């Protein structure tokens, strides 16, 4: 669903459907203008997706707030299979980068996450 420009409202509606997809392994929502609010809505359900291995939210302007909400949900949730997280060009500054670095350093997460991009 890349380049569909669903925005925060669409991300919220999509999160309702994703909550029922227990075996979701790959989600690609690049260039959809979901912003921090949309990232937060997605984070609420994605943290419980145990099979999620690849999450692509690049070019979405999620910022520090959205990055923080994703980290909280993914780290504190059951999403232990995540091997690739792509937040490239999502307006993430120093605060969000610091939060994301916890994933890369393995401070809160298992060793599954092998690739992380946010710049």
Structure description:
The protein has four helices and four strands, in the order αβαβαβαβ. It has helices at residues 7-18, 35-46, 63-76, 94-104, and strands at residues 26-28, 54-56, 84-86, 115-117. It has a four-stranded parallel sheet with strand order 1-2-3-4, covered by helices on one side. Helix 1 packs parallel to helix 2 and helix 2 packs parallel to helix 3 (63-76). The longest helix is centred in the middle third of the chain and has 14 residues, at 63-76.
Strand arrangement, major sheet: 1-2-3-4
- State the secondary-structure class: alpha/beta
The number of helical runs is 4
Judging from the principal axes of the Cα atoms, what is the shape?
globular
Count of β-strands = 4
Give start-end ranges of low-pLDDT stretches. Answer: none
What do the pLDDT scores average to?
88
For the record, give the distance between the C-alpha atoms at the N and C termini, rounded to a whole number: 22 Å
What's the Cα radius of gyration?
A: 12 Å
Helix content: 40-55%
Main sheet characteristics: 4 strands, parallel
Order of helices and strands: HEHEHEHE
What percent of residues are in strands?
5-15%
